Amino acid sequence: MISSASSPATDGFARTMFESAVAIHYLESHPDLVQDYVDFLWVKRKRQHDDLVKYAPSQAKRVDPQQLAQMNTEYERVKPRFTDRKGRVRNSWSQLSFRAMSEDIKADSMYGGMYGFTSSITHTDMLGLVSASGDRDAVISFPSLMNIPLALQMGVVSYAMTLSAANQIAGLRCDESLGKACERFTSPTARTTRLRSASRMLPRAASMMASMKKQWTHETAVRSQLALSWSVETNHASCPSNPASPHRVNVN
């Protein structure tokens, strides 16, 4: 998350970590649903193949017939478990929403406090757009340290949740060591140490981001020039008055 030096990227990583932590904790609490989690694979594959047939039929024809037959057989096997009374196949292995799963495992404070915000940034809704502006309503240029503390907090908690669930599922008997690690991490002394370490890292991070920003600016300019050349040449080639091949694209 730190190496990306980008608010949307760090929040996206943290959001994914939280989703994984909630899923593993929920399945640990409801082992009867593990098979649904596994078997929903065939619903996803069937839909992916249907999209391939619709939007890329030439590639769909390349699918191995035996694999296709297996997919269809497995899909028909698991389909009844994911079909509602109206004959519609649901979009998730779980009948609960992600929010409901978070509440079920007592992680609703994380969901309400962080997940909604990181989702807005990931999906670029209006809240995500507004949050990308500074105090003077200026759009933040990336890379940026903004929101990295929030993302790290969410990431660390999600990591701890996952370790706890793995400990219970695998019967590792690490309750005591995990508890002590959590106490050390949340202690006032540890928080002070982390703050001091972070303050020492900031100048180096700022220098690294300045270098990255310079490189990104150069790469963006190159990509923009290539895109512009492609657009101009393609439009020119597709003009009825121009007999040139539409595949001839000048990117110099």
Run of helices and strands: HHHHHHHHHH
Structural class: mainly alpha
- Major sheet size, sense and barrel closure: none
Structurally, how many domains make up the residues? Answer: 1
Summed up, the helix count is: 10
Helix content: over 70%
Q: In angstroms, what is the radius of gyration?
A: 25 Å
Cα distance spanning the termini = 36 Å
Q: Overall 3D geometry?
A: globular
What does this protein structure show overall?
The protein is mainly alpha-helical. The chain has one domain. The chain is built from 10 helices and no strands. Helix 1 crosses helix 5, helix 2 crosses helix 4 and helix 5 runs antiparallel to helix 6. The protein is globular and about 60 Å long. It starts with 6 loop residues before the first helix and ends in a 15-residue tail after the last helix.
Outline the secondary-structure elements:
Elements: H1 7-29, H2 34-55, H3 57-60, H4 65-78, H5 98-104, H6 108-123, H7 126-131, H8 148-170, H9 175-186, H10 188-237
Helix pairs in contact: 1-5, 1-6, 1-8, 2-4, 5-6
